Structures are given as structure tokens and as C-alpha cells.
Amino acid sequence: MKDKAISLLKRLTEAHSVPGYEAEVRDIFVAELESEGKVSADKMGGVYCERGEGPTVLLAGHMDEVGFRVQHITADGFLKFLPVGGWWTHTLLSQRVEVMTREGGKVLGVIASKPPHFLPESERSKVMALGALFIDIGAQSREEVERIFGIRIGDPIAPAVPFTAMQKEDYYMAKAFDNRVGMACAIQTFQELAGEQAACKLVAAGTVQEEVGLRGAKAAAEKVRPDVAIVLEGPPADDAPGFPKSESQGKLGGGVQIRMQDPTAIMNPALVDLAIEVAEREGIRYQLTMRNSGGTDAGTFNQANEGVPSIVLGTPARYIHSHNAIIDINDYLEMVRLSKALVCALGADAVAGLTDYL
């Protein structure tokens, strides 16, 4: 299970998949699951695999990562860019990126700015405004960028970072753990449940454009019309310096996160209780989480149709929305275990009980 997870996470994190341009992750999803069930797509680019009968249980990860798009090409061959998703400008300078051309080629560049040597002292200690940054791909003119490199306005840009094992056993560093851990979990859970007698119609999904407003989840909710939504995520860890250790709810090595609330969604209480019950019965390590910031596709799913009981399971990752995030793969493996066990617990009676309000 671990070897499969490592291989899958490497392929997924190294894929280029910013909002609106999720093809590389979609291709991995289809290649992994096309022999496991019925594969389909929605008109925004979200992708699905389904099998079984009974209440519809949706296992959803989002395929996109925070990235950029080319906004302007200067006369001397530098690229100005717009963020797609939430970036903290502190993390960007001197980082490598890849621009994907319309022909599918990838052009390596580095995010740069005016050197500090040429800045007045008053500006050196300030965070550079995003508009002051640019990408250097080694071109010398706009014509070279367009004709030789094949780059045009609007082309998507993603961090260029390899999936790397760290010195500490089971720690891995990569870009886009938000949300390739969710995508890997949806794929691996669906595969490992192939021989199980789950009493539901199981739908694994990769949604699009989560990082720009949970947009693809709207199409997914309409297409699948789930009875339950299990959202699989790579949320921010809170165990680094600057956080009170006694208040940590996202510690690496602490197990899968079970999110109870964030500003976009109050999770179905009965579903949360069921997830906790299943985790304790199966000996799965978990961390309960209440968040006062952030959000996930559950923010859309829980309000869809007449309301969909939703929950978020997560693998905490340090430094998400940057070029280098860190996970403990054991937390991911616990997320897969809980996803599998929770799906198996969601038969018709259990699903009906989640919304038995009268």
C-alpha cells in the first residue's frame, strides 16, 4: 500500500495542473481507474469513476493546484504573470516554474525581481508586490518568446519541483500536496475497495478550479447528485514554530484530520460522529479539526441540491500554497484507511440516518 502511495503521489505532484488546465492529473485519474468502473466527465473538465448500487457516496479530491498565467510579455522577453489561486508573495522569489505552451511543451523559468542591490534601504525589508515580479525564461525579446519558445498570453504556469524523499523516514517534500493527496486517496481508495462489498454506489471524482472558488464542485454536485460527500484534502499543518503545540490540530504524524467546521461548511454532525466511531473501531489515528479560515469543496457540496451531508478528511501538509510542502506519508495512509472504512459503513440505513430530522 505504501509503495503504491509513493508512486502515485510522485506522478500526481509532479503533474502540471493549475485551475482550468487540469489535463495532466485528469489523465492519471483515467489511466488508473478506467478498468475499475464507468468513467465520465462533466463539461467543466471534472472526471468521475463509478461502480456499485445503493446510496451514492462521492469521494472527491480537486485536481488543480495554485499557479499562474502569463499576463504580458515584455519587449525584452520577460513574462509578467497573474496568480491563479492564493499565493503568499514571500514564497515566490527565486523559485523555478514551468510555463506550459498550447502545444504541450514546458518552458523552465525563474521568478525574479529587481535585485536588492539596486533597491533603496527602505524597500529592501518590504515584501515585493506581486506586480513587481516577473519570470525569466532566458529569452531576449517578445518575438523569441512567442516564435522560439511558443509561449503566448494566457498560458498556464506551475511550480517546477520534484517529489523528494527527505532524510526523516516517511517524510516527503513536493509541490501541490494540496491537493494531490486528495486525488491519490480517491484513486487508491476506489482501487482497494474493488473486492469489498460496499453497500453503496461509489463515485470517485476529481473536481476542477477549487482553488479559485470551489467552482468545479458545483458541476460535480449537479452531475453526481450524491447522498453523501467525502471531501479528501491536503490542509495546512499547524505544528511548526509559531503555533502553540497544545492547540495543534494538524500535526505531521498525528493521523488523518477529520474536519468538523471551517468558514465554508459545518460538517454533518452525524457523519462526523460516524467517522470518529469508524476510526476508533478500526484503530485509525485521527485528529479532530475546527478551522476559522480556509475552505474546501465541502463548502459547495453541503449546500447543493437539497443539501448533501459532507465531511472533509485530510492529510496535513506543512507550507501548502508554496513550492515545497511536507507530509508524513503515514497520515496519508491513515486517510486511505478511514476513507475505505467509512465508505463501507455508508449503507442505505446509515445514509438515511444522516438526515433523519423528523
Topology:
Blueprint: H1 2-13, H2 23-33, E1 38-41, E2 47-51, E3 56-62, E4 67-73, E5 79-84, E6 96-100, E7 106-112, H3 121-124, E8 134-136, H4 142-148, E9 156-159, E10 164-165, E11 171-174, H5 177-192, E12 201-207, H6 215-224, E13 228-233, E14 256-262, E15 265-266, H7 269-282, E16 286-290, H8 298-301, E17 310-314, E18 325-328, H9 329-345, H10 348-353
Parallel strand pairs: 3-12, 3-13, 13-17, 14-16
Antiparallel strand pairs: 1-2, 2-12, 4-5, 4-9, 6-7, 6-9, 7-8, 10-11, 11-18, 14-15, 14-17
Helix pairs in contact: 1-5, 2-5, 5-9, 7-9
CATH topology of the largest domain: Aminopeptidase
Q: Give the overall average pLDDT.
A: 95
Q: What is the annotated CATH architecture of the largest domain?
A: 3-Layer(aba) Sandwich
Question: What is the number of E strands?
Answer: 18
Overall helicity: 25-40%
* Strand and helix order: HHEEEEEEEHEHEEEHEHEEEHEHEEHH
The dominant shape is globular
Please give the largest β-sheet: 9 strands, mixed
Which radius of gyration do the C-alpha atoms yield? 21 Å
CATH class designation of the largest domain: Alpha Beta
- Number of domains as seen in the coordinates: 2
First-last Cα distance: 43 Å
Number of helices, counting only DSSP H or I runs of 4 residues or more: 10
Assembly form of the protein: single chain
Q: Provide the structure class.
A: alpha+beta
**Strand residue percentage:** 25-35%
- Low-confidence segments, ≥5 residues, pLDDT <50? none
CATH superfamily of the largest domain: Zn peptidases
Please give a quick description of this structure:
With 358 residues, the protein is of the alpha+beta class.
